[in-house]
Predict the 3D structure of the following.
Amino acid sequence: MVKKSKTISKKEKSTRREKENKKLDELKQRIEDLTPEEYKTYTNFNELPLTADLLKGLERSGFVKLTEIQKLAIPECLKSHDILAAAKTGSGKTLSFLIPVVEKLIFESWSDMDGLGALIITPTRELAVQIYEVLLKIGKFTQLSAGLVIGGKDYAFEKDRVGRVNILIGTPGRLLQHMDESATLQTNNLQMLVLDEADRILDMGFRKTLDAILGQLPATRQTLLFSATQTKSVGDLARLSMIEPKYINANLANGGKGGEEMSLPESLEQSYVVVPLNEKLSLLWSFIKSHLKAKILVFVSSSKQVHFIYEIFRKLQPGIPLMKLHGRQKQKARLETSVKFTQSKNCCLFATDVVARGLDFPAIDWVIQLDCPEDVPTYIHRVGRCARFGRQGKSMLMLMPSEEEGFVSQLSSKNVEVKKLNIKGSKKKNIQPQIQSLCFNSAELKYLGQKAFISYCKSVIIQKNKAVFKIDELPLDLFASSLGLPGMPKLKLPKKTSDLTDEARLKLKEKKNENRKLKSLDNANDNGEIEDKDKKVRTKYDKMFERKNQDVLSEHYMKLNAELKGDEESEDDDDFLKVKRRVDEVKNSELPELEINTSKRAMKKALSRKLTAMGSEKGAKLVFDDEGKSHPVYELDDEETFLKQEPEKVKSEFLLAEREKMTMQDEVDKGVAKDKRAEKKRKRKELERHMNGDYSDDSEDEGPFVATLGTPQNSDDENDEEIPDLVNDLEVSDSESAEDGPDKKKQKKWFESDKYKERDQEDEGILEIEQPETIDDLEALTLKLME
């Protein structure tokens, strides 16, 4: 039975709409009447003046209790004030701005026809994904639509849908790209702008991108800034066009306007150790080996260091799953790593500061900072990955002797107290010999070590805080040895670190955070086409040897580069045998053979003559020029020489020769196919005779030769091969078996032939037989002798 759909009249619709509007008006009035004394006493979400759909989504998602920042920020945001909020890491800042965003659009009766209503900007892709997932949970029962735009995803897919969402979450680079290129994205009607981790977004690395985004947004919007460490710079606030912003600091017990003190969760145990630069990797290895049942997050200063440490530790196999996460990875790999680390119980993740902002990884036991953070706010965000929402957590910071005094005093000035730990010598294990052995046997690991060394030195040079970061006092030669390098790579360092101005540091950070897509558009011509200066295919080896700062590599890489490129300008005769002489020197020396890291397919092709010949063009005639380079014949012929050869005649001769080759090849192919059919027919006949019990050989006097269409007329069967007793993969049809059926006379066995009987009569008991060839022949001979 089909259930009839209930029809709603226009009067009922209008009545329902009036009731909904009345409820919204009551909620708005409750929000306006809220006072700080009242909402500071709230403990649950259902006490706030929120719509029923949003409260249902919060309850289904498991959000019941209000945190300190949520209690203070949500009511002020609902009143349409501009907010500048700071709170401890892991205190629930995400819901503090998502709830007002959803409520604002519900109160305005927002629909798809109204376009983009709220824009949320985050500094990292992982944080944007996390906010998007929370928004989908709490807004499940509302009629609003949300979108996520981040780098590394399909831009064309986002472009078709970005104009139809009400709430848009993204990173600065991809958002600016959509604003510049996507015609469907309109921001004229924007109601709210949210900057999560605002101090990081307002950093000078994102300054130009953020300025370009703000220039396309209406000035009448509501702006919310949230972070664990907040800025109150007048210049930053003026750029954001904030009108009388309210300062909310949940770090202070009274919620005052200070904002300078930085506090961390009470359940976090903070400590630091003093260790020389060249002993950091050994200490990290010893720590991981003694905490195999823990979940560890290790911070380093650059992505190249992450890559090198991950590969080295993976070779040494500490006994715990290892992961890596940095900004140079593909987006798919970054998301997969984030999910695996979230779901894992015992593992170690090596990461850069891309993980330090806002990400909620559950149940992290230890946060290890291998390199000193650039400032106190970065330290706060790093250690804030553990001890979230009241859970226990520990952190350990590794400081060099030159960094201890300056950074510890800076932490104390911000009311962040850390205790010093002393590591027992018996607990340390030196892994420098193992690292040197791995780098000696693997050129790839050695090259990664060089890049890690250079990237660390650069990260120290560009830091502002010269009271902590002192490149001149670092033992760089010992640090290179700890990375397994035979010597310190050549690195151009400024005579004085103070020579690097703030403007130079600004350019370096902007270059690091720039959007590659927007940079490519700057090189477009008048027709909008991106000019490609170098259109040839470039491999990773080409990129490696075409680097501008090649002088920072070690000497043997420079020599390898020179050998590959060749000295074309030299005209000495001695250079002609240069390569041969070097090969002989290597063969005669006692040096170990170099291990070439290549695929099995490439090795097989290089060692196989057949595969090598298949890869080259057969019959290609080459001509060598004066420099010894090979060329096809037609490349060195000029136009006059070509016309003298009578092109039509050359063409006809070429076609005739090719036609003769094809004819000969067709005959060969037909002969091969003919032989195969004959062999198949012969084996089928032999199988039929074998199955019928006839083991005699064919001969010319046993009957007329029968020719069958499609098979060769072969009368000589004396050299036919033996057929095995059982052949399972050949089938005989009924028509073929009928030709050799019961009408065919059964032949005699070899030992029943009349010639043997005549020999018996003549030789009086002397039996002459041929050599038996099969088991049946041997059994027949045995029976004959036993008579």
User: Anything to note?
Assistant: The longest strand covers residues 268-274. The radius of gyration is 41 Å.
